[in-house]
Fold each of these.
Amino acid sequence: MSEKLDFFIIDDSDVNNYYTEDLLNEFEFTNSITTFLKATEGLAELTKRIQEKTKLPDVVFLDIRMPEMDGFEFIEELDEVLDDQELTSKIFILTSSKHRRDVESFEKQKIACEFLNKPLEKNEIISMVDKHFS
Amino acid sequence: MEEIHRLLRRQIERSGVNLKATEDGRALLDTLDKTYKHFEDERKILEESAKRMLERISSSNENLLTIISTLDGFNYHVSHDLKTSMIHTVSLSKMIQKYQEAENPEKVKEILNKLVNNSENGLNLVEKFLRISQFNTQLVEQDLTTINIPDLINSIAKELDFKSPYEINFAQTEFTELNAKEVGIQSLFHNLLTNAIKYRESKRTLKIDIRLVQNGRDKLIYFKDNGIGIDLESNRDKMFKPFVRIENGLNKEGTGVGLFLVKKIVGEHNGTIKVNSVLDEGTEFIITF
């Protein structure tokens, strides 16, 4: 891998963010980790960076069930912001849900590329990074 | 039935026997008419009761469908919350393992504190779900009693902490007594009142207007506040669903269970609930029993 990676974690659960952040920090390839407890805040930051054409995170871990705006609403909003531009960030859904409803919603959309279950495992991160960034 | 009756009479006339000519014949015809009229009446009653039964079946089918979809939402929520809590436990335990091996007692201590917190939250969650299901059983099992609505509302209001001045007006009282399940009606008004307090507009005195209107056999309760209101366009469908929080009330404490219970209680009494609301002006619930 040529460059180090910047991560966003969007999840209303601070325990999960604490865990994922700790796990990501084990890796050499991790450059930075930014966490957002609200989808709206994560969306605002991404929107700002897309509009200002500044560096986007390489990976966004996105939870599904969050109050106010959930993961799929986030994806819809982001899709509108992008307006046919390609998103350079990889969006990984990171959820505790294995519910059919959520898997179907994931399959219908085009922005997120992986559907991962919590808790995230070390070898999962390695294989995801290999798959998308080597 | 009438058709068969007519045909039979015509056949008798065609056979050449003039039943109308003799006393016995006329009596026979009369009996025949009466018998058929009796059959016809019976048929109508059967038809009517079959129709009523069908109506009842399709309405209970609809009820079942609502219950299933509510349960589906309820189960989804409960299982998700419990699973989240367990995943937190697993995640934190794994971290403890890692830092234990790395001999970092400070970090282990930090994670253990989070683990204790998380376990306590999990326990509260389970207790909350148990309370809801217990309430359901209680509600179904309770008998109807006569409840004085204004007395009940006033006594609940006395127990509540309104934090600042408020007014409750019974603007119209065409009835005061309701035959209903007390535990349910008590919880219903408790929820409506706490919502009115929670979502009050702090710039004005909280005013709750209650009207009890008798409309034929229906008893209508209008419960209106002057709070922050609800954006019905985006929330009408979800406001009575379990564990859903309305956007402009997210900064207020709540579990998202109140209105779900209110609707359940109304449904348990075969009643209906409607809502009108204008943002920044207030919300009105109309309950029909």
Amino acid sequence: MSDEDILQVTNICKSFGGVQALLNVSFNVQQGEVFGIIGPNGSGKTTLINCITGFIKMDSGKVFYKGKDISYKPPNQIANLGLTRTFQIMRPYYSLPAYKNLIVPLFSPRARRKGGWRGGGKLGDRGTVSIDILEEIGFERDSFVPYKLASSLPTGYLKRLELARCLALRPDLILCDEVFSGLSMSEIASMVPLIEKLQMDGITLVMIEHRLRELFRVASRVMVLNFGEKLTEGIPEKVMADEKVKEAYLGSEKLLDYTFEA
Amino acid sequence: MSTIERRRERLDRGIKVRTEGIYAVSSWEEVTYLVLPRLILIVGLLLLPVLIPSLYWKRVVSIAAIYALLALGFDFLAHFVGLVSLGGAFFIGVGGYTAALLNKSLGLPILLTIPMATLGGALICTLLLLPALPLRGVYFAIVTLMYPLALMRIIEALNIFGGTDGILGVAGFPNRWVEQYLILLIVIFALFGLRRLVNEDIGLVFRGVKDNDQAVRASGLSITLYKAIAVFIASGLGSLGGAYLSHIYMWSGISQFALDFSVIPIAATVIGGGGTLVGPLLGCFFLVPISEWLREFGTLRIVFYSLILMAFIMFRSEGVMVYAQRKYHQFQRWVKV
């Protein structure tokens, strides 16, 4: 493991009853890169994220984050180390306004350590900080949107709220579980610069995606999963040229050609 | 065929801007609009001991206030933390026995036993419920229901703490006025304290646990810790009620583990309106006197009691205070479709 590796995953195995969801999956993520994870439906991508962040106990394997062993730790401890995740099915607090949603992560030990008891340090209280974060992520500050109940927000804003929850923890690494899914083309188009900006801020990103074209715009390396096993890993063009990958996406060749048209 | 020509439109009153919790108050009218309901409640509660002449009904007010503490705890846990607790009897019993034991065996005065039983009882309840905290919904409810039943039988079987006779000769209050006003003030402070708490940052974490506990874990917060804190607060309120009960009756016994203490707060929450905190409180001040008044009918009182509850559940299932708050904060008008 080199010094630049922020995340090192070795031989994760996980089975649900008779189904082998993950089998000996290993990969490294370098500091500052955008790492993509792709694969057909049911290939174990979300399970992989759940195992890394501690939401599911893996059967065997090790996860090192910044050289520290974090395998089998509870999810809240892992999040406090700066390794955060978004959920594919958004999990906002529906009964709270959008900006109050962020007060929960701002109350975590990590955010408190960095922001003091009031949460914002010199910047004010947690409410002010959460409005700042929301503006950064694309909620218009002077509109009503940040003050609306999360239950009344459309999918695009909820996806942003998921990312905002991660940002509130001031993370070093975000595992994004399909942030583009369920969004319209124009919403995706406005999300991509956001991802690029996060990368420029020095945050490492691991992205699970089905929207390959958008993913390849930002990702420097991708890994392909199929039936819980790692098929290949490398730069996007090389990976998509791989015969095994084409086989896994059987019947999707046309889609893949389309991906490189742009 | 008739078509609908008009529909009812509900509008927030102008004073409410942006979101609940942010008010723009600019005139005496608006200040009155906000303060008046609170003032009526506080003054109304404080006038109760003066207005009620008979000693018997004065005692009922104190008992209703104890139930109100339980109902506040229940509503807080159920609607702001997502834990349905049937542990009212458990909290009352633990608090009651702790206060009685502190008073009888250590000879401590009331001034010390009540705070000590509140904190000690809350600690005991929280520690005993700790293994059940990962459970949710009806499973947590069952565990909280088992504890009072189990403790009652343990005390009976082992003949400890006075066995079935209970602990007699616990110190009483100096006079009725102290007894009544102290508990009413405690209830008022508990109500406004909890209402403030659920809108503080830590209260938002509690509400987050209710809405989506996995997201709270992903936010770097331990849900078990915050559930434990919430249970500590609710069981503290219950234990305080229990300690008070022991000192009012100058006795503590296994009937303090009676299921009434678990069930009436829930019924009061149904009637008063869950999630309002003030609703369950008023529900107790309505239900407990009614249940006393119905004593005249002997065993038939259960029938009347059930009828009242059924009527509320069928015709006003949202609860009185949810309805009243909506009427107060919004106005309706008919508009052409």
Amino acid sequence: MRRSVAIAASVAVLGVALVGAGPGTGSGSGTGTGKPASALRIPHTRFRLPNGLEVIVHADRRVPRVVVDVLYRVGARFERAKRSGMAHLFEHLMFMGTKRIPEKQIDLLMERNGGWNNAYTSEDVTNYYDVGPSRLLELLLWIEADRMATLAHALTPKKLGLQRKVVLNERRQSYENRPYGKARLAMPSLLFAPSHPYGHTVIGDVADLEAVTAGDCKAFFGRYYAPSNAVLVIAGDVDVAKARALATRYFGWIPSKVPASRWGRAKPQPAKLAKEVRREMRDRVALPRLYMAWHSPPHQTPGDAELDLTAAMLTTGKLSRLYRELVYTRRVAASVSARQDSRALGSVFTVTVTLRRGADIKQVEKLVRREIARFIQKPPSADELARAKAQYQTAFVRSLQSLRSRAETLALYMAAVGRADYVAKDLRRYTSATTASVHKHARAVLGSLGRVVIHVLPESPAAKKAQQKGKK
Amino acid sequence: MRGVCSRLCVATLLPLVLVCGGCKPDKNKAAAKPDAGAAASKVRATKPKPKVGADGVPAFMDNAPTLPAAKTPDLPLAKRFKLPAGLEVRYIEKRDLPLVRFGLLIKRGTASAAPGVAYVTAKMLAEGAGKRGALDLSAALQQIGAELSISIGLDFIEIDLEVLKRHVDAGLSLLSDIVQRPRFEPTELRRLAQRLAARAQSRRARATAVAPLVFHKVLFGEDPYGIPRLPTPAVIRSVKRAAVVAFHRDAFTPDSAVLAVAGDIDRAGLVTALGTHFGSWKAQGSKKQGAAAAKPPADDKREDKRSKKGKAAQAKAPRLVFVDKPGAPQSVLRIGMRCPGRRSVKLAPLRALFKVLGGSFTSRLNQSLRETHGYTYGASASASLYRRAGLVAVRTSVKTSVTEPAIVEIMKQLEAIRDAPVTPAEANKARRQLIDAMPARLESVSGLVDAQTTLALYDLPLDADRRLATEYAAVSAADMQAVARARLRLGQLTIVVVGDTSTFAKKLEKRYGPATYLGPDGEALPRPKAKPAGKAKGKR
């Protein structure tokens, strides 16, 4: 299951929530009625152009729509020192036009013809997608090919300056003016050393964003935006042969700037905390919140699915361990959640507890620690595991419905495991987990004292006043 | 197949500068389009041969490909039937994946009951039903991997359940318990009230949640539409079990409900399953009481009169409302006014107008505030239409220091879209966006169910969306301007700003007159005392 943290260029306008869009998968016409979920697949044809571009065509002619998804194998983890936020800022610049398709025209061309687009950047990848009626296919390919080949030629300091402003506004909207944003900004630097590829946020530090030059952007483009570093997915109401011809026509001529490297699993870069890292911070929040975070197995490696299932057993449903204890029985928490944030080099498992007013955060932390200790003391019950698995079975099938989700899933599988034909195998990671395997992996992760603990407390009235004074 | 250089279609759609570098026949043999080059040569036979770009990009890349003609999407019609005991069912078959979704719509929402009662009732449905307590019900839903969601609106409550095909029977059994036999246990009611109260408390710190709450409150005042769906903690705690039981008895009856079904199930199978689980569902109260409760509130025909002749219509300047959030890095804005409800507005020109104004990335507001001025991460505008009335609103969050210029720019944009008709290119874009977005809902069972329950909520005919597609195609720039003039009257706008008032209050009050100060729950607050330090700050 993938979960890239979404930072999208135009999400705000459309109100699209990208985070947790669902586990990967898809089926086209190939998935028949009544087949077991394990037979799920997204029928497709895959080929590689001589310049290294991986092309995947998923034909599904039931709805008169197409999706073009272009994934680049670059994310925040590829950023160099003092340039955090570069990958995401560059994602914004990809919409700022080329010599042939000048500023604003990428969006206008699509929207005038009933289509739309968006993109997001995670630690590991940057993904662009275009959606529209079937007749848009050739137009979308032309636009994507043009910017893959020539974006940097038309990149100016003015365009950079404008998108830097937009990104700083995005940072305000998504973190600085949002409750608990402070903790979310601090988490990467508490979990990882500054030199680790995950040691900074995807959105980036303000000083770094302000330091980026047009030259940096051009170099970044030259290094990472190459056909050999990208996957193109064409999905929807299209004939396979025609899609292949169009992909070849529009992308085949683009020079291969960098040699094609192998797609597939990245080499994990384990991070370990020698001891517990604790922080207390004040923020403009109404209720206190506790974060606990651990390093966990990388995406698509042994233990990754078990930690997803562990998250469900801890906080999904009223019988889940932490919900039952903290929210239902003791009523000290307003809500609890847990998640395995799966990433290529190493994942992060986070438990988040929002307290009820009047509850003592130290006491709540103690209760959380005790429940987690109970959970890893012996294997979960068969019923517990069955309930968690059932959620994933439904979620996989549900995520096969949307054409965009299927296109994206094919691209993400290609990036994560080097093959697109992976839905059934991905689901099997969940269905084949056992109480013993969950126990083993949950204990290895949650049993570690190397963890980050953050207490977020409401600003005291006194602090607020002091801040007011300081500002004036 | 068409030639790569005949940009006829695109050119008419795009009165924009797109460099036509030339029309060289396609030399890319890998293109596997044997007739493409020939067709291109024919079209441009008399023109000079193009050059290959200096940047090494093939000439065919210089021009946008020609698009095939647009088609009108084919939208499915639901089948409608009634169960013997009275429940109306709408059904769309979708057999490609083993999924079925049920959406039970109750045509009663938070505005149909005392504050908090409908919200608490709806949420209590999942806190124990039939022979299962809260914990057992949660476990039973999880065991079959069911996806349960309860949506609560001003005019409706909708309970949706999505399951794999093999769990349809078990799922329906649980859904019928949830809808017909909730337990409303007092201890669970207390638990729920505490959780909801905590949620309402945490909302106070979220400016993006406070802004719409206050905006509704100011626009609708004492009307039930002005009360937040999830009310304040104190109101939530005051909801009595007896009120919950009574609301459930009156509102949750087959007469005020519609069940929409989409997915991998045939009609015979559906009828059998529904007969088992919903066949005996009847109104519980007295017949008279049930019928009265079942009658949806009337459309408010007075809304338009009110906006033309009422007190609000006499206003000459926009009304300012501030919620103070000291130190906030952004100001969250809502700017708009009331409008008639869903059944009274002409939907097509209204939606088209707001598409152009703030309904997509290339809309006027987003382009201006985000891409030209760099004030925001995004700006949008749309109409929210309820049964009796609605509202139109511009929504954005802007950097604190540009609060005033951003509001001035928004007002300028609103004035501009009233004063002159939108361009032909904009009108065409809006029509295509609205029409071409319609098939997206066919991809998922939730999209199909949602479309049906929306039509049912407003008592619209089964083919209303097909008609709407036709209406969209016919909307003109003049239609849109007429809507702009009726629905965006600058003197009647309300401007809500949630942010650090010390930085913008004086400037905005100078422009628009004195502001009203409200708290994060919409409660009246005294004006903050003028601080000497604030004065010393002076002009920018």
